[in-house]
Amino acid sequence: MLFKNPKPRILLILCTSFTYLLLYLPIIVLLVFSFNSEAFPSPWKHFSLEWYKELWHASHLWQAFCNSFLIALGATSCSLLLCIFFLFHLAQGGKVKHCISLYYGNIVIPETVLAIALLGFFTLLSIPLGLLTLVFAHTILGLGFAIPILYAKYLDLDPRLTEASLDLGATPFQTFCSITLPLLKKVLIATGLLIFIISFDDVILAYFCAGSASQTLSLYILSMLRTGICPVVNALSAILFLLSNVFALLFFSIQTRSKVF
Amino acid sequence: MNSSRYIPFTLGAPALIWQMLFLYCPLLLIVGTSFISVSATGLTLTLQKFITFFQPTYLYVIFSSLLLGFSNAFLCLLIAYPLAYFMASSRKHCKNLLLFLLIIPFWTNFLLHVYAWFFVLEKEGFINHLLQSLQIISTPIAFMNTLFATMVMMVYYYLPFMVLPIYFALDKFDVRLIEASLDLGATKGETFRRIVAPLSMSGVRAGFFLVYIPSFGEFVIPELMGGDKLVFVGSIISRYILGDETGSLGAAFAVFACSFLLISCFLFHLLLQRVTYALQKP
Amino acid sequence: MIKSLAIRIGIILLWSLILLSIPFVPKLYQKHDKTIHILAWGDILDPKLLKAFEEKTGIRVRCSYYSSNAELLVKLKATKGNEYDLIIPSDYATVMLIQEGLLQPLDHAKLPYQDVHQGLLGHAYDPESQYTIPFAWEVFVFGIHQETFKERTPSWRLVFDPSCIDYRIAMVNDPVEAIAFASFYLFQDAQTLLNPAKVLAVRDLLRKQRSVIEAYASFRGDYFLATGSCSLAIASSSYFWRTLRLFPHISLLIPEEGTFLTIENFAIPKYSKQTVYTYELLAYLFTQESMQSHFHTLGFFPSTWKEPPLDIPQEAAVLMRYFTTYPEKFHFVRELLSQQQTQELWIDVKSD
Question: Do B244 and C215 touch (CB under 8 A)?
């Protein structure tokens, strides 16, 4: 763009490569050590799949993984559903322009504050803490992403399409389902993936609002980290890294039609 | 009167109700309880809790959290801007690839990244092994359990939050403005300072606050990477909240600390505006 | 106009009611038969054993965890204890629970008090063992690198006296424990509540210690020893056995002035109704196999071991014999200040 002469460009390229190297270095080291036969800090002994076998048998971990997955699924579907209904209300002429700014607070407020506020609220109303309360909490985060993004995208839609549909005799409901939603499909899926990942990764809200009977994956890993190194976590990271790559590829194939590579 | 005209409202209401019920009500609740003290005679309105917090102990902690947030945001900005600039100025395929590579680590659980950094920074870890095998040092350096390790992890985690807004701001940039500026006789440096930078400030501002505010409440990273040797706002809140007698104090402290955060955010907003104007001056 | 407003408000209220009552739904589906709810410290019960118990008797066991005694109190007070059938508090939490009247007396006929190590019974928190039975115990020890400490006397000076410390230390991260240790070192007394002058002395001692501290970590001391980040780690004995096995240059020291004991007890909340199943579970947990497996997986000394068995690490056997021979050297950690004062002192220590 701006810098056509090579010197600053090479500097930029070096900076970028170095940054990316640092971004990936820990993950690569972690993956390499997941195949070590000895636990860290013992040095490399020999290649072994021991930790993967132990991972397979760690039933507590898989329970926590299922919990995290279900919570993330619940939070994503809740957020998207609420958002779609909200857009429907908007499409029928609901006056919501000023309400959108209410949603900016969700991601701006420090998560710790949100977590303790929810904890106090649930305790006051004697609501039992558990997976459902965590879904509710994550939906707050999800709404903070879903509504601003989808509202902005909705405003960008061509109003003539919906007008034409209504003119041709479709009910508002039919118009919304056949015209508006398909146009928003890509953004909906992308936002859904984003909310899913944020909910799956979340530590702080789970730390305060999960109740003690339900364990999410993040809490499980946190408790393992607090007690030292456990090589099963290495094996787990390798698998999660693979899964997240698949997700990221999905996200990108939706976001952009052009080739990634 | 057609009852079906209330259907859109019925459907659209839960989103707002959810927001009110599960965000604003709880927040109002903790703000409210900070001003109330429960005693044998009932509830009384009091500023006692806030007065307790005006000790050097607590003020020091709030100040260090603000400093942590600011230094994190500043370091992220230093690293993110060149990166975002490079990404925005690349060709289309390269751009997508770089974006993809930036986001992949973000999709894995962040605790696993913390864990991964143990393997890199420990005395028996990757960096020490590398430096020793290259014979730059003879005994391993202790990187872990220091402020350095905490900052490394924080920058590592929050970098995408800074890069993406700046990248999107630079990506939408109209290249013709640069061409016009160069045609009118400005040097490359001047063009950057007076045209590109101010117009990317919206991205910088978004990124700054996306990094600054969450870093303020961070407590997991300083505990795991810094050996829990420093206290931050998040640590105090989490310790107090989970206690028996200190629960309401924790909520009050959260409100107290957040008011400082809000004031500092406002000041930074003004500062960024000033910087934008200053950049545009000849 | 008003009618439409009223309808809208009605819709809003209806939705609010629905949303607030959804979290209560799982409770309605809970089967109240044959399930025991346990509230325990994080690493105290072996999940495999509990699963074996479930398969053997058909009684389901659900575990909840707490990470600090303050949290335990909050949870029990909030539910008046009727959500849990069995709790595992440590010694100083038990005092508060008994005072608040949250525990029910135990049936001595159904529990093996005669098998329990004598040194674990009859302490001040429950002299007649009316409400508790000891399950496991552990001791605070110093994990060390052997070469650094070859010629040195094991003493609390190794942790608190700056003149003889030229290495890095991993200290406990619990303020109650740290204050108890400091108080014991300064005043040879860890039971009396502290007056303001003593509080300042404790704070200054802990502050001076900061310069040699590598990290504050209650559960990772052995990890810091293994990676060489520190040469001395203070932690509970149960965290050291796996590291001792893997790294022969690490050993244990017991300070000669005495150290601190933690006893994990079983107790039954007052309003629990499943006591029949609870006693069955307790009988199962007190068997030899269960106790043995608990030591080997989690590292606690079982309360029914009166003599160290042959297959445990050397250091563990030494520790057990030391406890049997010199029980007066073992003290309990207790809260010496109010919760708020404790936390404020801890924040003061860690700030500059």
Answer: no
Tokens 């050996």, located at residue:
B227
- The answer to whether A26 contacts B93, with C-beta atoms less than 8 Å apart, is no
In the CATH scheme, what is the code of domain C139-261+331-350? 3.40.190.10
- Residue pLDDT, tens place only, A35-83: 877 776 666 777 888 888 888 887 778 888 899 999 999 999 999 999 9
Q: Which residue of A has its CA nearest to B179?
A: A2
Amino acid of residue C187: F
Would you list the domain boundaries of chain C?
33-137+262-317, 139-261+331-350
What pLDDT sits at residue B3?
65
CA separation for the pair C352, C348 (Å, rounded): 8
Taking an 8 Å cut-off on Cβ atoms, the answer to whether B124 and C70 are in contact is: no
What separation, in Å, do the N-terminal and C-terminal C-alpha atoms of chain A show?
A: 21
pTM recorded for the entire structure: 0.87
Taking domain C33-137+262-317, whether its CATH number is 3.40.190.10 is answered by yes
Chains that touch C (3 or more CB pairs under 8 A): A, B
- The answer to whether the CB atoms of B19 and A102 lie below 8 A apart is yes
Cα distances (angstroms) measured from residue C25 to each of A64, A82, C32, C79, C84: 21, 20, 15, 18, 19
**Number of residue pairs across A and C with CB atoms under 8 Å?**
49
The interface predicted TM-score of the complex, written ipTM, equals 0.85
Q: Which of C68, C62, C282, C31 is nearest to C173 (CA)?
A: C68
Angle value at C-alpha C101, between C100 and C106, nearest 5 degrees:
140
